[in-house]
Amino acid sequence: MIKLTIAEQIRSEILRSGPGSVFTAVHFHGLGAEPGTIERTLARLAEKGGVQRIRHGLYYYPEPGAVFGALPPKPEAVARALTEGAPLVPSGPTALHRLGLTTQVPMRYSYLTSRSSRMEQLGKIRIELHKVPERRLSGAGTKAGEILSAIEYVGRKEANSTDFCGKIARKLTRKELLQLQQAATPRFVWVRKVVEKINKTWMSMNESTTDA
Predict the structure, then answer these.
(1) What domain count does the chain have?
(2) Are residues 15 and 34 in the same domain?
(3) Does 192 lie in the same domain as 153?
């Protein structure tokens, strides 16, 4: 069996990740190579045009656009690369936009994480990472985490409104509703009460189905 060089393994991993992926040298530490070797390999790939360097240490495997060249990296892909393996939850307007509760595209993408707080500027778009306690990251990677983040952002009064609870309930399947209830367990009492109201709203909306 032919053993691949570190450079070949890195290229293979990038291709496996697919167009649109964003990564740092940390992503490849499992290959067993020295960090300096990985960084130099990525720098050479960037020079040859195989990947794009967003800034020092941060790279992008371009996703081709339908009309005008490569698409810019997606903010969440950048955020995930910067928090490599750590929980990540959209926050504020980012969460509202992800859930379809606002049509306004944010120029500032905010995420909650267990990693250190930091900010990354991509042209006109700013990506913010905010370190928070683990309990505020429950449901990370699911719609439940996005909903809980949205609830905390809009506040107790707005989140308790019939309109808000109705909008959230209409976006949930039974499985997602159960995930939301489970993810709400470590949150503030008022957040759990909002989730209870969303649950009751969902049950009311789906009464004929649940009785069947």
Answers:
(1) 2
(2) yes
(3) yes
Record the tokens describing residue 94, joined without a space. Answer: 């980012």
Predicted pLDDT of residue 64: 85
Are 88 and 177 found together in one domain?
Answer: yes
Element (H, E) at 7: helix 6-17
Verify that 92 and 108 share a domain, yes or no.
yes
pLDDT for the residue numbered 212: 46
The model's pTM is: 0.86
Of 69, 74, 51, 53, the residue nearest 61 (C-alpha): 51
Within 56-206, residue ranges assigned H as helices are 75-82, 92-98, 143-154, 156-159, 162-169, 174-183, 189-205
Residue 39's domain comprises 6-71
- Among the listed residues 43, 47, 48, 4, the one whose alpha carbon sits nearest the alpha carbon of residue 24: 43
pLDDT block averages, 10 residues each, the chain of length 212: 78 92 89 84 90 91 80 93 94 94 91 95 92 96 97 97 97 97 97 98 82 48
Judge whether 190 lies within some domain.
yes
